[in-house]
Q: What sequence folds into this?
């Protein structure tokens, strides 16, 4: 049986993060050649479990093998500062969804942030490519910075794994 840190609560009509975790950040590519999905689960001591899955990079364009890896590490000081800066804002007023208001795009990349701090889990969903102008309040501006940092961290992990899968050497 696989551990699932999230569940849907019928009464609250939202996803609830397991109480062991302070937050979860999930990012995915949407429909793309690499099918990248990275989730960071962070506990209250800032221990971080990273789950990464993607199509295994290959020099053969027709080879689409799924690669999955999980690792455990301590959250970086920069991540901690950015997250705690978000918590210092009026983060409970964040919208559930940040997306293009007049355009529906399916199969686009997105991020999901679940926060377990002092209330039922806060759910925030952000579509890829949304410009900073969509984030107006101090909490939203901090969310934007945090989201950009976490997307960059996910891509760094992916590039390190890709390099390893192609060459056999970790960077």
A:
């Amino acid at each position: 049986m696989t551990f699932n840190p999230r569940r849907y609560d019928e009464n609250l009509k939202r996803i609830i993060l397991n109480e062991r975790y302070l937050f979860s950040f999930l990012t995915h590519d949407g429909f793309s050649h690499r099918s990248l999905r990275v989730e960071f689960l962070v506990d209250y001591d800032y221990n971080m479990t990273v789950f990464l899955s993607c199509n295994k990079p290959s020099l053969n364009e027709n080879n689409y093998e799924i690669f999955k890896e999980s690792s455990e590490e301590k959250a970086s000081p920069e991540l901690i500062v950015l997250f705690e800066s978000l918590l210092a804002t009026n983060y409970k007023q964040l919208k559930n969804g940040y997306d293009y208001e007049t355009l529906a795009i399916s199969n686009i990349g997105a991020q999901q942030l679940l926060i377990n701090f002092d209330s039922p889990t806060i759910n925030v969903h952000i579509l890829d490519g949304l410009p900073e102008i969509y984030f107006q309040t101090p909490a939203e501006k901090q969310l934007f910075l945090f989201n950009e940092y976490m997307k960059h961290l996910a891509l760094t992990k992916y590039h390190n794994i890709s390099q390893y899968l192609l060459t056999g050497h970790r960077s």
